[in-house]
Structures are given as structure tokens and as C-alpha cells.
Design brief:
The structure holds three protein chains of three kinds. Chain A is an all-alpha fold. In chain A, 69% of the residues lie in helices and 0% in strands. In chain A, helix 3 crosses helix 4. Chain B has twelve helices and two strands, in the order H-H-H-H-H-H-H-H-H-E-E-H-H-H. A two-stranded antiparallel ribbon of chain B has the order 1-2. In chain B, a hairpin with a 4-residue loop joins strand 1 and strand 2. In chain B, helix 2 runs antiparallel to helix 3 and helix 5 packs parallel to helix 7. Chain B starts with 17 loop residues before the first helix and ends in a 25-residue tail after the last helix. Chain C is α+β, with helices and mostly antiparallel strands. Helix content of chain C is 18%, strand content 22%. Chain C has two helices and three strands, in the order E-E-H-E-H. A three-stranded antiparallel beta sheet of chain C has the order 2-1-3, with helices on one face. Chains A and C meet through helix 3 and helix 7 of A and helix 1 of C.
């Protein structure tokens, strides 16, 4: 237990900010992991079933560590499952990009690659966070994310530079999902506050690294970078797309139907 | 259980010229000495075909088996259960892969085997044609279905064909966590709320008989079994394995405080076995024929995945062809080296 | 089929100091994918520190028909084994 949870600071603005920030990280991993879980048994090849499942497992693992930490910061006794299964959509802080539907394999790969590049930038920086718990989680997550990016970038290249059909599909997916990347790269007050405290990286730095990585992949994939666009609301502030509600209804059904039960 | 539908056996090898008969005699001697047959060794064509069909059925079962449990990944009631279930289903996919690998050493391509599954020519274990209706079903499958599979698979670790035996060793190592996770789910439910206990009992009520039937009907009538036993592809009879499963599982159900849905179940002191009521083989036959609760849905799911993935597989093949065939590889976000130490890519 | 991916054989080094061992095969469209697939299929339980993949079509195997000629002659050359030689017990370091 960190001292933040048991001291009078538990409800302080600083703790509240940290709590919200950790939820942003945790929920993004959780929701993305949940999306990948939908693929198991339906992927284009058996090998991809295993590959996507591996990524899902890593993401769920990240979510568990981060949610547990968030619960400690909050200091109200909520554990990883209480946070995952008993919050409603407006309390979720995942990036909207994570909740976008799987669509076809191309859409899934585009979504994955955009988020993997972001996670890699963020978690590499978080390895040096002034928050030792985050630094610890980040050190583990960086290794996982390097592999995820290798997988998704490799596939984006093969699909972009594969057949005419595959090229068309992923270009279309890229054009549709691009507007959700702005939220990942444009800081709001909380991002600035965390950066100032040395807890989180500056999103300006993240943007620069992300643009480089994604630029290189898109070029090799012979894909056109879409024009700048933004989605008007932000999942990280709790204002989501219509998809999250449906996801949570499915994910949370059992604990909500049998309150208090142990599973 | 992977021989459930093998009773239309491949015709026996013709006894051709004397050379062929001698080879066959040598082969039989190797089998008798418990020697392993490896991929390039001479083998009777019927042995090869029987193995291909059995291994393929086994592989198909693993793949189709991903679906009933995969059905609950998005709804697992805790993050730990979700992670464990993903890992289990992933293992099943991996098992399918080890088995397709083993089958391919016998000279058949995986794509050919998949085609046979998808157009209904190949069979897979009947048990996966039942629906998973509640979370307790996930526990019941791990406990009963994986339990039955383990019973069947351990002897196959000693089967005569090397690649199949080795695949089974790998699979058995991984399988024991599967059964334990299933039992743990059942235990948690059995010790939980009244609603959870009822959920567990309901699952047992629906999965008990199909699990018992997994071992297939009595071998007495099967000519196929005799040949498979002679070739050390099959090492125990269906009845022997089924009895072992029942004897081991009944005490586990008692520990859970759950009732096995068989009013005739009783312990027989003289034989030291549990005796069961009559098994309704007509249900089993119907399921094997394609008329079980989920046969259509399972096959359709696999067909859809395969068809929907066609453009993806094509794209990957096209990329490789465009970029130098065997050495093709995307550069982005990768380091792949040759054993000689040459780094051939960079971020 | 144009969408068919070639077969690769997979070899894993379990720990530093051991050789790579053959563990099975899988399908992949290109070399990098083969490594990733091998990692996802064969090293989930910390079974490896290094992966080799080779196209199955590149593997050259000895013909079992020739097993006698290839391997029998070594059987009677027992003088290659240290146990063939009788050295008195009192002699040390031999």
C-alpha cells in the first residue's frame, strides 16, 4: 500500500489526479485487451489466433497491475475487479481508439499499430517516472509493447504492400481511425499536470516519437498518412463513443447480475 | 475419442509382391519391439492413412474446441479468470498446430486437412457440438472434457508414430493446467452463493453424459479398434478409458457436493469400479451425423473465419513474393538476424 | 493455393549453453513471421532463449533405407569408447 492511500492525502487533488491518470493507462489496456479477446477462434490463421491472444494476455496483465495500483491510490478499497466490472462508461478513461470495433483483420491491425506505437513511447518514458510503481510496471510493459509493435507493424506492412484488396482495406481503416489519434497526442490539463510532476512524459515528446515511428511504418506499407482530423470528445475524459457501452454491458454482465459473488 | 468416426476403415493394404510382404513383416516386428516409426520410414499405406485421419480428427477437435470456451472470454467474471481462459483457449490452438504439424509429416498438407474439416468430410470430437450456456459450463468443460481428454491422451504419448507421440507429450504437459482451472471454477461456484451452486449443478447435469460418451461406444463391435491396437496407435479400449474416467471423476463430484445425473450410478465392491446407467448412444450417433445442438454453428464459425481471412493470407503471400520470397520480411520495428550474427533489419 | 504459406521447421534453444532442439513445424508467409509464430506457439512457457526457423523444403534428411550403411559400421568400432580399454585401478588420472 502506498502512503497515499492511508494518509489524509487520500482525497487530495494530487492523489485524485494520479488516480485518474493511472486509470487512463489501465483502461486503455483493458479495453484493447477485451477487443482482442473477441478474435480468439476467428483469426485468419491459427498462428494469428495465438499471436492476438498473446497480445490480449499482455494487455489484460497490464490492466490488472495498473487497476490494482489505481485502487490503492484511490484508497476506497476497490480492487482490480471492482474497478473493471462495476464502473459505468463515463467513469472509464480509456482512449477512444481502443474501443473501436475489430472490423476485419486490417482494421484490427491498424488500431493495434497506432496504439502500440503510442504505448511504446509512453511506457519507455514512464520507465523513468518519478512514481516508482509506474516505473516498475513500465519496465515490464516496454518489453511486451516492443513485441506488439513488431507484430502489428509487420502486419501493417504486409497488408499495405500486399494485394490491391489488402491495400484498399487498410488504407480505408487508417482513414477512418486517424481522427482518434489526436486524443493520444494532444495534452489536456491532467497530462500537463502529470508531466510537470515528472510522473508522465510530455505528450509533445510522445507525439514526435510516435509520428516518426508511424511515419516509417506507413511509408514501408505504401500507405498514405491521412489528413489531420480529430474526434470531438475524449475517452480519456470519460466521454466515449457508442461502442464502449455495449462492450461494458457484455464484459460486466456476470458480476452485476450476481452482486457480491466470488468467482 | 479421436477414433470416434474411424469405423469406416481404409481398405487393407494389398498383399502385393513378396518384397512388399517382407517390408510389412519388418514393420510389424518394429511395432512389436515398441520401436518408434518416424516420418520417412516405410509404413503400410493403411497405417499412414489411419494415422492421418486420427491425428487430423484430433487436431480439428482442438481447433473447434476453441469455440465453446472462447464464447466466454469477453464475459469472464473476473480479470484473472479472463486471462486464464484466454491462455487455455490459446493452448488449444497451439495443440491443434502441433497435431497438424505431426499430420503433415505423413505427407498431407494442412490446407488439405482444413478443407476436409470445413466441407464436412472430416470429423472432430462430438463433445464440442454442445453449447456453453453459463459460466459454469466453462468450469465443467475444463473439469470433465479436459479430464476425459487427458485420460485418452496419456497412452497416446507412447503410440508408435514418433511425431504424434512427441506432440502428445507436449500436449499432456500443457493439459493438466486446463483441468485444474476447470475444477477450480467448479469449486468456487460450489462454495459460492445458492445461485452459483445451482449454476454448477446445472452444468454438470448437461455435460456429464456427453463427456462419458466422448470415449466412443464399446469397441467390441469395432474391427477398426483391433487394427489400431495392433499398430500401437490406440493402446486402451474405449470401455477401459471410460471406466477409468468415471472411477476418477465420481469422487471429485462428491468433493464438490454436486450430484451426478445418473440415478443408477453405484459403487461395485467386487470389481472396485463405479457402475453407471445405460448410455444413450442414439444421441451420440445423431451428434456425429451432424445433428447435435451446435454442429452447424461450429462449422459455420470455422468457415467464416477461414473465408474472411482469405484476403489476409493472400496479402501476406503476395508481400513475400514481391520482396524476395523466403528472405522477405518487413523492416519496420524488427531485428531479425541469421545465426551467423548478421543484423538484417533495424527500427 | 496462392494463399498457402510455406512450412517452416522450428528449433529452440531452451537455455544458454544448450543446442537448438527441433520442436515442430508451422506455417508462415515470410521469415520474420515464422520467428514470431514460433515465439507465440513454442515459447509461451519460458521454453526458449533463441529461435531458429528453416524452410522445411531446405531440410536435407538421411534416407532411412540407407540407415544400415550410414550407421551400422559405427557399432563394431568399440575401440572409440573409453570402456574398451583395461587400465589397472592403481593407475591414476587415466
Amino acid at each position: 500500500m502506498t502512503s497515499a492511500a492511508s494518509s489524509p492525502e487520500a482525497r487530495s487533488p494530487a492523489a485524485e489526479s494520479r488516480f485518474q491518470y493511472v486509470l487512463r493507462l489501465a483502461d486503455t489496456s483493458l479495453i484493447l485487451g477485451q477487443r482482442l479477446g473477441e478474435w480468439v477462434g476467428h483469426a485468419p490463421a491459427l498462428e494469428e489466433d495465438l499471436g492476438l491472444a498473446n497480445i490480449a494476455l499482455d494487455l489484460i496483465g497490464q490492466a490488472r497491475l495498473l487497476l490494482a495500483y489505481a485502487g490503492e491510490i484511490e484508497g476506497r478499497g476497490r480492487d482490480e475487479d471492482a474497478l473493471a466490472f462495476l464502473r459505468d462508461a463515463p467513469e472509464f478513461r480509456n482512449a477512444s481508439l481502443a474501443e473501436q470495433p475489430n472490423g476485419d483483420f486490417g482494421q484490427t491491425i491498424v488500431r493495434q499499430c497506432l496504439l502500440d506505437a503510442w504505448q511504446l513511447e509512453v511506457y519507455e518514458a514512464l520507465s523513468a517516472s518519478s512514481d516508482p510503481r509506474l516505473a516498475e510496471v513500465a519496465a515490464k510493459t516496454v518489453k511486451e509493447t516492443r513485441y506488439h509493435l513488431r507484430f502489428s507493424a509487420g502486419w501493417l506492412v504486409r497488408l499495405g504492400d500486399g494485394t490491391e484488396e489488402s491495400h484498399g482495406r487498410v488504407q480505408q481503416a487508417l482513414d477512418a481511425l486517424w481522427r482518434f489519434t489526436d486524443e493520444l497526442l494532444t495534452p489536456d490539463g491532467l497530462d500537463d499536470e502529470m508531466a510537470a510532476a515528472g510522473i508522465a512524459p510530455s505528450l509533445t515528446a510522445v507525439r514526435s516519437g510516435w509520428e516518426q515511428r508511424i511515419g516509417a511504418v506507413l511509408e514501408e506499407a505504401t500507405l498514405k498518412k491521412p489528413a489531420a482530423a480529430r474526434y470531438p470528445w475524449q475517452g480519456k475524459r470519460g466521454v466515449h463513443t457508442e461502442h464502449l457501452g455495449h462492450m461494458l454491458a457484455q464484459m460486466q454482465h456476470l458480476p452485476r447480475t450476481f452482486p457480491g459473488a466470488t468467482w | 475419442m479421436y477414433t470416434q468416426a474411424l469405423d469406416n476403415p481404409v481398405p487393407d493394404d494389398q498383399r502385393g509382391p513378396a518384397g512388399e510382404a517382407a517390408l510389412e513383416r519388418r514393420f510389424d516386428e518394429r511395432i512389436e519391439r515398441d520401436e518408434k516409426i518416424e516420418p520417412k520410414d516405410w509404413m503400410p499405406e493403411a497405417y499412414r492413412q489411419t494415422l492421418i485421419r486420427q491425428i487430423a480428427q484430433h487436431a480439428h477437435s482442438e481447433i473447434v474446441g476453441m469455440l465453446p470456451e472462447g464464447n466466454w472470454i469477453t464475459r469472464a467474471p473476473s480479470l484473472r479468470r479472463k486471462a486464464v481462459l484466454i491462455a487455455k483457449v490459446q493452448d488449444e490452438g497451439g495443440h491443434g498446430m502441433y497435431l497438424y504439424s505431426a499430420a503433415e509429416t505423413l505427407g498431407v498438407a494442412r490446407s488439405e486437412l482444413i478443407e476436409q474439416l470445413l466441407d464436412g468430410r472430416a470429423k472432430y470430437s462430438s463433445i464440442f457440438n454442445y453449447p456453453t450456456l453459463t459460466w459454469a459450463d466453462v468450469g465443467a468443460i475444463g473439469w470433465l472434457v479436459d479430464g476425459a481428454a487427458i485420460m485418452n491422451q496419456i497412452p497416446i504419448c507412447r503410440c508408435s508414430y514418433g511425431p504424434y507421440a512427441r506432440a502428445m507429450v507436449r500436449i499432456c504437459k500443457e493439459e493438466s493446467f486446463h483441468q485444474r482451472q476447470g475444477f477450480e471454477i467448479m469449486l468456487t461456484l460450489a462454495r459460492g452463493t445458492a445461485a452459483q451452486r445451482a449454476m454448477a449443478q446445472d452444468a454438470l447435469d448437461r455435460w456429464w453424459w456427453p463427456s462419458v460418451m466422448m470415449f466412443g461406444p464399446s469397441d467390441a463391435a469395432s474391427t477398426h479398434t483391433a487394427q489400431s491396437m495392433k499398430w500401437r496407435i490406440k493402446r486402451f479400449t474405449n470401455d477401459e478409458l471410460r471406466q477409468k474416467f468415471i472411477d476418477v471423476t465420481v469422487p471429485q463430484a462428491e468433493f464438490l457436493g454436486l450430484r451426478i445425473p445418473d440415478p443408477d450410478l453405484k459403487w461395485d465392491e467386487p470389481t472396485q469400479h463405479y457402475l453407471t446407467g445405460e448410455i444413450d448412444w442414439s444421441e451420440f450417433k445423431a451428434v456425429l451425423k451432424g445433428n447435435g445442438p451446435c454442429n452447424q454453428e461450429r462449422l459455420q464459425a470455422r468457415r467464416t473465419a477461414h473465408e474472411a481471412g482469405g484476403w489476409v493470407r493472400e496479402a501476406a503471400a503476395a508481400y513475400a513474393a514481391k520482396h524476395g520470397g523466403r528472405s522477405a520480411q518487413p523492416r519496420s520495428a524488427s531485428n531479425v538476424t541469421s545465426p551467423a550474427g548478421e543484423v538484417s533489419a533495424h527500427e | 493455393m496462392s494463399e498457402d504459406w510455406p512450412l517452416f521447421e522450428v528449433f529452440i534453444r531452451a537455455r544458454s549453453g544448450l543446442e537448438h532442439k527441433h520442436v515442430g513445424s508451422l506455417h508462415a508467409a515470410d521469415a520474420r513471421m515464422a520467428i514470431e509464430h514460433a515465439r507465440d506457439v513454442y515459447t509461451r512457457r519460458q521454453e526458449g532463449v533463441s529461435i531458429w526457423v528453416a524452410r522445411s523444403s531446405e531440410i536435407v534428411a538421411s534416407d532411412p533405407e540407407e540407415a544400415d550403411a550410414l550407421f551400422e559400421p559405427a557399432r563394431d568400432k568399440v575401440y572409440r569408447h573409453p570402456t574398451f580399454y583395461a587400465i589397472p585401478d592403481e593407475v591414476k588420472n587415466l
